[in-house]
Design brief:
By secondary structure, the chain is of the alpha/beta class. Helix content is 42%, strand content 12%. The longest helix has 39 residues.
Length: 330
């Protein structure tokens, strides 16, 4: 039995290693020919796999392109597009203009407003917003005045304490010939003054002048001429006068918006009405709505800051001499 199986296997092996010619004669393949034949089959298989992979990849790319071209607009952009030329949805009403505001750098610089075809090609990393362009300055001031009334609803007025006789909101707002409580923080760098300024800014009805001398550079002002100009600017701001030669300050703010960003109440309005944000006429009237006025600077020397107290209008000026903060490290 085993002999028969061995004979069969030998016959099969001999058939695999031989071939039949056209004349019927048997031709035996050499080992070299068998290896060459196997190699060719492997190469053909690899080529077929490569062609298949390329074909599938190309098909996927075509499908991706077709899907992208027919993809609908996102809901945020679609709703903003529909708002162009329509009545604005803000509380003050009026027509709207669609634009874009970038959180990085100057949001109101050149090229930040898109309209028509330019809006349809809005750049990435920009968020569509709706600007109310028909609300007048009086409308904006009326809306802010109402917000301040709500903020100050439960405010504990001094009523004679701390030398301040104010008993109601009108006693503290410059708009109504009142005298606001003014706070000045004179500090040095890395002293915690920004933190203290933010605490004061958390008070209801506060208008915050953050580093109003930024346009003088990173230095303490020592030159006599610069000191006079710095004092003049500070007095103008403390008394809400943006019309008195404050052009350099406002131009600097346009390019460095963080000058206004720390003043949250003002910056909120600036984002909604950017066409009013840098206008002295608007800023002067807007500032006079607030019963509390605070300011923080690290560029003014104390000896110079003391001269602010000589102004008779500054009777209610609270001067904070924040010289140094000892920080515990745990």
């Amino acid at each position: 039995m085993s002999t028969a199986n061995e004979s069969s296997e030998s016959a099969t092996a001999s058939l695999l290693t031989t071939g039949v010619t056209a004349g019927g004669s048997v031709k035996t393949r050499t080992p070299h020919q068998r290896i060459t034949f196997t190699t060719k089959r492997r190469k053909m298989s690899r080529r077929a796999n490569l062609i298949g992979i390329c074909g599938v990849s190309g098909l996927c790319i075509l499908l991706l392109i077709a899907t992208t071209q027919h993809r609908p607009l996102p809901a945020s952009l679609a709703s903003s597009s529909a708002a162009v030329g329509a009545v604005g949805s803000g509380s003050l009403g009026g027509n709207a203009v669609v634009g874009s505001y970038s959180s990085a750098g100057n949001g109101f610089g050149a090229g930040s407003v898109y309209a028509g075809d330019r809006f349809n090609r809005a750049m990435p990393q920009q968020t569509a917003v709706v600007y109310n362009v028909t609300a007048t300055i009086a409308d904006v001031l009326a809306a802010q005045r109402a917000k301040i009334v709500v903020e100050m609803e439960y405010f504990d007025y001094p009523s004679g304490r701390f030398g301040v006789d104010a008993e109601k909101l009108a006693d503290l707002t410059p708009e109504t010939e009142g005298t606001p409580v003014r706070s000045l923080i004179v500090a040095s760098w890395r002293s915690g003054s920004t933190f203290l300024g933010d605490i004061l800014n958390a008070m209801p009805g506060n208008y915050y002048h953050y580093e109003p001398l930024l346009n003088f550079g990173i230095k303490q002002i020592r030159d006599p001429d610069e000191q006079e100009l710095a004092l003049k600017n500070l007095k103008n701001l403390l008394f809400c006068d943006y019309n008195n030669q404050m052009e350099d300050f406002l131009e600097y703010g346009k390019m460095h918006t963080y000058l206004f960003e720390h003043n949250e109440r003002l910056w909120t309005v600036c984002k909604e009405y950017p066409h009013y944000c840098w206008r002295p006429k608007f800023l002067t009237r807007f500032c006079k709505l607030f019963p509390l006025q605070s300011m923080k600077t690290v560029r003014l020397r104390l000896s110079t800051a003391e001269r602010l107290l000589e102004d008779k209008r500054s009777l209610w000026l609270l001067q904070w001499k924040w010289l140094r903060v000892v920080k515990a490290v745990y």
